[in-house]
Design brief:
alpha/beta, binds S-adenosylmethionine, 189 residues, Rossmann fold, single chain, two-stranded antiparallel ribbon
Length: 189
């Protein structure tokens, strides 16, 4: 893996195969406690589109990714879906949403990039808009197989999010190893 892992056809195909049995259904159940059905939702980093297909059952969802390869895959496999080429840091989307969701995407951002992303999320959300993001749980950062991974925990969330969002819930959960992940749900201040 390298920092271009999500950008080549071969590695995107490999990722899709590796991740085929993983989805965010349980995380989306948590989101539903805070964001009413039919709300307008932006997904950041839709990747293979697995979570998008679950989200569309409840929300008016627009997917996005900063990888052209993933977008080609999404447009080919979900022709009735709406997908934008967006970077999580700048979110140049030109419209407002009631909620923003991502599953294991924002951990790729360095601290300053995450801070920029959070400010942009505040700007593209309607008043009292909801954010729901999953992260790898822990401290510090590392390059894992060549990809940057920034770990987060409850304490760090406060520092990053508190200027723009009220934290409604932080929920540790298990993806591969016990409590290796954490879900954050927040409301726009
Ligand atoms: C681990 S995958 C998660 C995909 C999807 N959420 C899922 O659960 O299958 C990470 C995705 O985030 C995208 N991504 C990584 N950095 C990004 C960024 N800065 N802006 C937008 N998307 C990004 C990648 O292209 C990839 O599709």
């Amino acid at each position: 893996m390298s920092k271009d892992y999500y950008k080549t056809k071969e590695s995107v195909e490999e990722y899709i195969e590796l991740a085929k049995d993983v989805n965010g259904a349980e995380l989306i159940e948590e989101l539903k406690k805070y964001l009413p059905a039919k709300s307008k939702l932006l997904e950041i980093g839709s990747g293979p589109g697995t979570d998008w297909k679950i989200l569309i059952e409840t929300y008016q969802v627009i997917g996005s990714d900063n990888s052209k390869e993933f977008l080609d895959h999404l447009n080919k496999n979900i022709p009735n879906g709406k997908f934008f080429h967006l970077d999580a840091i700048t979110l140049e989307v030109g419209q407002k949403f009631d909620g923003i969701y991502s599953n294991k995407v924002l951990h790729h951002l360095k601290d300053n990039e995450l801070a920029d992303s959070i400010k942009r999320q505040y700007e593209v959300l309607n008043p009292e808009g909801i954010i729901c993001h999953s992260f790898w749980k822990g401290e510090g950062s590392e390059y894992f197989k060549g990809m940057f991974v920034n770990y987060h925990n409850e304490e760090g969330f406060k520092e990053f999010f508190q200027d723009y969002f009220e934290i409604l819930a932080t929920i540790p959960y298990t993806e591969f190893e016990e409590n290796d992940s954490i879900l954050l749900i927040g409301k726009r201040k």
